[in-house]
UniProtKB/TrEMBL annotation:
GO terms for molecular function: DNA binding. Pfam families: HTH_31 (PF13560), MLTR_LBD (PF17765). Residues 13-85 form the HTH cro/C1-type domain. InterPro entries: Cro/C1-type_HTH, Lambda_DNA-bd_dom_sf, MLTR_LBD. This is HTH cro/C1-type domain-containing protein. SMART domains: HTH_XRE. Coiled coil: none annotated.
Length: 260
């Protein structure tokens, strides 16, 4: 979908949500009896503290200057569910101001337990690529990362800043370079977050290889493929990597390694 199509889709989505919102759910001045269902454009504009003309242009897909803050006010005024709010910002191409707050939400136990149901190495990464859950097979495989209580759980920090990773990953130089490009693609909309900025600064200071790869500004999709390891006790190992997103927590990524 091109930008014009996205603007029209965004406007149509907002319009349909407006007319579907029961007026009884809001405390509006005047009578709630009306000929047409839902809210009027004037009412949404008032709730969002924006002009009626500008709001009308948004619904008609005629403006490209909708800020993330304005979209957040529209989402709140229309009482959008979490899924609908995420869809709103996806159409707009803007970052949801509340997205960072979602990181503080506790991950349900059933999601964390998913890795334990998988027999092959599997781990769950958050937005910053910290491992938040992993199974016994992953703990055995990733020497110096998931098997040590004092080790950093960040995948980038492990890959670039430990000798264990350099010895374990057979094609370390190639994989490390690609990993930085995958991380940039994965967190592109959140590079201004303090946690990510601090992580990038810390890795750049600690690893010349990361700094060099990051400064290339390369972007590649995090995809599967063959992964080869030279394990200190298990010897040469080969896997096919599969990556999955958690449906109701899109910032979480499930990584599985299937034996070849």
């Amino acid at each position: 979908m091109d930008q014009t199509g996205k603007r029209k889709a965004l406007g149509e989505f907002i319009r349909t949500q407006r007319i579907q919102l029961p007026t009884a759910a809001l405390r509006l001045g005047g009578s709630t009896r009306r000929r047409t269902p839902g809210l009027r454009r004037e009412e949404v504009a008032q709730l969002c503290d924006i002009s009626v003309t500008w709001y009308t242009w948004i619904e008609q897909g005629r403006t490209v200057s909708v800020s993330a803050a304005a979209l957040a006010r529209i989402a709140e005024a229309l009482q959008l569910s979490r899924a609908k709010r995420a869809y709103l910002f996806e159409l707009s191409g803007k970052k949801d101001p509340q997205a960072q707050d979602g990181l503080a939400q506790e991950i349900p136990a059933e999601i964390l337990a998913v890795t334990d149901t998988i027999k092959t190495p599997a781990y769950l990464l958050d937005r910053h690529w910290n491992a938040v859950a992993w199974n016994r097979a992953a703990k055995t495989l990733f020497v110096g990362w998931l098997d040590k209580k004092t080790a950093s759980r960040n995948l980038l920090e492990y890959t670039y800043c430990t000798a264990d990773a350099a010895n374990l990953i057979s094609d370390w130089e190639q994989r490390a370079s690609r990993l930085a490009a995958e991380f940039r693609a994965d967190c592109g909309m959140y590079l201004d977050e303090p946690e990510i900025a601090e992580l990038v600064a810390r890795l750049s200071a600690a690893s010349s290889a990361f700094k060099r790869a990051w400064n290339l500004h390369d972007v590649v999709e995090k995809e599967g493929g063959e992964r080869r390891f030279s394990h200190p006790t298990l010897g040469q190992l080969s896997y096919r990597q599969v990556n999955l997103r958690v449906a109701n927590r899109l910032e979480l990524k499930l990584v599985m390694l299937l034996p070849l």
